[in-house]
Amino acid sequence: MTSRRCLRITVLVLLTVLLGASLTFSDVNPFGFAGEEEEQLVDVSTAFSTSAAQPGETYTAAVKVSIVSPWHINSSKPYQDFLIPASLMFDTVAGATPHSVVYPDGDEAKLGKETMSVYHGDVTVFFDVTIDADAESGEYTIPVRFDCQPCDDKSCVAPRTKETALTFVVGEGGTPINEALFSGATTVTPAADANASGGAEADSELQRLIDEHGFWGYFLALGLAFVTGLVLSFSPCTYPMIPITVSIFAGQERSVGKGFIMSLFYVGSMAFVYGLMGLIVSLVGGVFGAWLASPPVVIGIVVVFVIFSLSMFGLYELQVPSALRQKLGTTKGGGGILGAIVLGIVAALVVSPCVGPFVAGILLYVATSGSPAVGFLVLFVFALGLGTLFVVIGTFSSAINSLPRSGEWMETVKKFFGFILLLMAIYFLRTLVSSELIAILFGLLLLAFGTFGGGLDRLSGEAGFFPRLKKFLGVISLIIGVYLFAGSLLTQGLILPPASEWLPASGGAGVEKAELVHWETNLEAGLARAKAEGKPVLIDTWATWCANCKVLEKKTFGNEGVAAEAKRFVPIKLQLETADSPVTIEFKERFGLKQYSLPTTLLLYPSGEVHRIMQGAVGPDEMIEEMRQVK
Q: Which of 26, 30, 128, 530 would be a feasible disulfide site paired with 570, CB 3.0-4.6 Å?
C-alpha cells in the first residue's frame, strides 16, 4: 500500500514538472492569456555601421524589425488611409542628429478583396546619423521608437510602439562593422530626408508628385507654382497696383533697358525673399508637421482661410495699413537699383490679403517636402510668376495701355479667389472630419460656385468669350456639386436611410436590394432590449485602425444570408479603440476576455450567457452556422 502511494506521488511530481516545463518553453499559452505572446509579435533592434564615429561625419544606422509569422504590419505607405503606417521616430540627443529615414517598399497582400501594402518577416529601416563637429569622445545613446500595427489574415491587435536605442561610440580609429547588413542600404536622397526630431518619413502632395513623375515631377511642381503666381497677379489686390508700383521703383520716365533692369531687381529680390521662406520652413518641416497634427492649429488655419475668403466676397475689406501704403507711395524716383531691391523685399514681407493665404498654403505644402532645395525653388518660381506682369510693364511702358481695365471682370476674379480660399479651408479640414462630410462640404462649395459663378445665367447671342466661359465652368460645377452632395446624402444615410434600403428593385436588371444589419451602439440598451424581447445577442467590436474589422463588415455582415439571420438577434456594434480605455476594460471583464484583439464577435443567449466568442474575420458561412446554433 505504501509502495503504491509512493508510486502515485512520484507520478504526480513528474507530471507537475513536465507541465511546468511545457508552460515555460511552449510558445503557445494554453490558457489563452495572449498578453505575453502579443508583445513578441514584433521585435526591433538597432545596428551602427562603424565601431567608432568621428566628429563632423555622417554614418548609416539601421533598425532591424522582426515580425513573427504569420503576422504582418502595415508598410510605411499603406494603400488605405485608415491604416496606421510603420513609422520610425527618434529622441534628440546632444552631439548627434538622426535623419534621412529610408523605409523599404512594402509587399502586396490580399485581405478579403482589399490589396494592402505590408511588411512581414525581417525588414530593415535605414537612416543617417550626423555627428556634431564639436562632439566629445564617448558613448552616445539615441532613443528609438517604432510604431506599427500587427495583423494576421483574420485579426489585428492594437497599434503599438516598440522602444529600443541606438548606441555608438564617438572617437578615433573606427572600422566598418555589420558590413553584410549595410551593404544593402538604400542611398539616402533629399526627398527621403526626415526631420531629426520627428523622424517620420516626409510625405506630402508635392513630394508624391515628384515621386510619381520622377525628374519631370520637379518641372510639374515648379510649373504649377509659376502658374499659381501668374494667376494671382491678376487678383484685385495686386493687379490695380502694378502700374503704380512700377512707376515708384522705375520712375515715370524710363527707357526699355532701365525699366527691364529695375523690374528684374524688384522681382528678383521679392522672389529671393519668398524662396528663403520656403527654405526655412523646409528645414524646420517637422515643427510644421507637428502643428498640422494638432486639431487647434488646423482649426486656426481653416478659420484664417475663411476670414480671407469672406473679404473676397465683399463682406469687409482687408488691406495693408494706410500709413505703410502712403510711405511707399511717396517714394520718388525709386532710389535706383537699391530702391527697387528694398521695395521688392517689402512687397514680399507685406503680402496682400489676396496673396497671403495662398503663400501660407504653399508654405504648408513645402514644409513636409523634406528638401530645402525644393522648398526654396517652389516659392522662388511662384514669386517669379507673381512678378511677371511687373517685368513686362516695367520694361514696356506701352504695355499698360494693353492691359484690360478694372471692372466687372475684376469682381468676378475676386470672388473666384474667394472660392479657392474656401476650397483650401476644406482641404485642411479633411484631417479632422470624416470623408463623407468633406464630400458634402465640397459639393456645397461647388453648388455655390456654379450658382454665383454664372452657371444659371441666361446668355444672349452676342455674349462674348468671358461670359460663356463663366457659364461653362458654372454648369460643370453644378453637375459635380449635385453629384457629390446628393450622392453623399443618399448613400451614407445622413438624412434618410441609405438608398440601398429603400430603392426599389426593377427585375433582374434593376438595383438589387441589399439587406444590412441595423446595429445598436449602446451595449446596455441592446442587452436590455434583448432580455425584454427574448432575443439572442450579436456583438461586433471594431476600431478605426482595424483593417480586418472592415473586411468583416463588408464580407460577412454585408452578406445577405448573415443579414437575414441577424434579424432574429439584437445586433450591437461597439468601438474599442484602445486596450486601456474604460470601455474596453469593462467589456473584457464583463465577458471574461483575456486578450484585446479585433475584430472579436460574441454570440449571447437571450439570458446574456455567452455561447461563442469568435476572433478575426469570420467568413459568412461560418458566421451563419454559429448564429443558427443560438436559439
A: 530
Question: What's 550's DSSP letter?
Answer: H
Q: Per the structure block, which three cell numbers stand in for 384?
A: 517669379
Burial class (CB in 10 A: 0-12, 13-18, 19+), 373: middle
Phi, psi of 91 (to 5 degrees): -100, 135
pTM exceeds 0.85, yes or no: no
CA terminus-to-terminus distance, the chain: 53
pLDDT in tens, 335-383: 567 767 777 777 766 656 567 666 776 776 666 555 677 778 888 888 8
- 316/308 Cα distance (integer angstroms): 9
DSSP state of 50: B
- In angstroms, the CA 27 to CA 23 distance is 8
Q: What is the rounded (10 degree) CA torsion for 410, 415, 421, 426?
A: -160
Tell me whether residue 97 is exposed, middle or buried, using C-beta atoms within 10 angstroms of its C-beta: 0 to 12, 13 to 18, 19 or more: middle
| 597 Cβ neighbours under 8 A, 6+ residues apart | 34, 38, 155, 156, 157, 615, 616
Place of cell 488655419: 301
CB atoms within 10 A of CB 495: 7
Positions in the chain short of pLDDT 50: 1-4, 6-7, 9-38, 187-204, 328-334, 500-502, 504-514
Q: Helix, strand, or coil here: 618? A: coil
Angle of helix 215-232 versus helix 372-395 axis, rounded to 10: 40
**What is d(CA 337, CA 264) in angstroms, rounded to the nearest whole number?**
10
